[in-house]
Structure formats: structure tokens, C-alpha cells
Amino acid sequence: MVKLNKIYTRTGDGGTTGLVDGSRIAKHDPRMQAVGDVDEANSGIGLAVAALGDMPEAAMLRMIQNDLFDLGADLATPIGDGEEPAWALRIVESQVARLEQEIDAMNAELSPLDSFILPGGSPAAAAVHLARAVARRAERSATAAAATARLNPQALAYINRLSDHLFVLARRLNGNGAADIKWVPGASR
Predict the structure, then answer these.
(1) pLDDT tens digit string along 97-137?
(2) What region does 64 belong to: left with phi over 0, alpha with psi -120 to 50, or beta?
(3) Mean pLDDT, the chain, as a whole number?
(4) Residues 131, 48 contacting (CB under 8 angstroms)
(5) How confident is residue 85, by pLDDT bands cut at 50, 70 and 90?
(6) For residue 16, is pLDDT > 90?
(7) What angle do CA 133, 172, 185 make, to 5 degrees?
């Protein structure tokens, strides 16, 4: 369990931050951009949870929030050339599979899309759409980081599935798609 007695350490004042293994990298490193974007996605999901209140979907999102802390730890833990240390927290296949199962279950209740939809609808769906957009950015950051550092393939799969999950959830929250706002190409011309 993590125990934090002191919030500031001054170790980052020179523009570097510590990784889980104790090494230091620049705060603007692509790996740290990905970690920050995952944190922002998690915050967006927290906003959606607050909008959901005690709806059953809130529990699903709280589990995802916990996963996103796992994902941040995974991204902040370099993968070495040797055997993986026992303390390394990694996203695992079962976490990705759970997202896929939840997507499939929610999607089974939805009518097929016949147009792109605009982010919005109910306040809860709008909050989930915002979290989805941030999750997409986190995915772009993670793939950029993967171009310069070895990352866990399951971490990349998780962040990819997350935005799909949030998209389907937003539709579910919009009356299973009935309250989706459809894009009308060129409508404001």
C-alpha cells in the first residue's frame, strides 16, 4: 500500500520526475505525457461518476478508475531486458477482457449507429464523452511513448478499449442511443 506523508519533495524542481524503478526522466518525456493524460482521463471519469450518482454504471467506472491507476503505474515502470521484477504492476489481459465484455454487454442493448453522434445528451453522457475524448488523447500519448520506450502491450490495448467502452457507455446513458445527438453534415452552412 502507498503511504504519502509529504506531498512535495523538491526533487522535480529541475524538470525531472522519478519513475517507479527510481530512475529519473524529463517531465516532458513522452512517457510522462502519457501518464499525465491517463491521470486526466481518470479525472474526467471521476466527473462522470459524480454525474451518475448511484446509478449502476458508476461502480463500473470506479473499477476503471482503479485500473487507470494501475495503468499509470505500468507506464511509469520501465520494462527492462531481464526478468520482470515481482513488484512491477502491469495491466493484464483479464483487465482488457473485462472491458471487452462490458462493451459487448452494453452494445447488445443499443440500436446500430446510422450516423456519427455529437458528444452530449444527458449530463452524465456528456461527462462520459469528455472522458472518452481525453482517453483518446491518452492513447495517442501512450503510442507516442511506445515509439521511444518499451511499453506493455496490454497497457496499450487497455487504453484503446477504454475509449470504445466510454463511447458505448455514453450511448447507453443516452437512453440506449435514443437521445444521441446525430451529426448532420453541413447543417450550419
Answers:
(1) 999 999 999 999 998 888 999 999 999 999 999 999 999 99
(2) alpha
(3) 90
(4) yes
(5) confident
(6) no
(7) 60
What letter represents residue 115's amino acid? S
Which pLDDT tens digit goes with each residue over 31-80?
999 999 999 999 999 999 999 999 999 999 999 999 999 999 999 998 88
Q: Tell me how far apart the terminal alpha carbons of the chain are, to the nearest angstrom.
A: 56
Q: Give the HSE-up count for residue 63: Cα atoms under 13 Å, Cβ half-sphere.
A: 11
- Residue 67 in contact with residue 95, Cβ under 8 Å? yes
The DSSP call for residue 150 is -
Quote the CA–CA distance of 69 and 66 in Å, as a whole number: 5
| Widest distance between CA atoms in the chain | 59
Asked if 119 contacts 44 with a C-beta cutoff of 8 angstroms, the reply is no
CB atoms within 10 A of CB 75: 30
What is the Cα 66 distance to its own chain's centre? 10
Q: How many other C-beta atoms are found inside a 10 Å radius of the C-beta of residue 62?
A: 14
- Please give, one letter per residue, the 3-state secondary structure of 60-120: HHHHHHHHHHHHHHHHCCCCCCCCCCCCCCCCCHHHHHHHHHHHHHHHCCCCCCCCCEECC
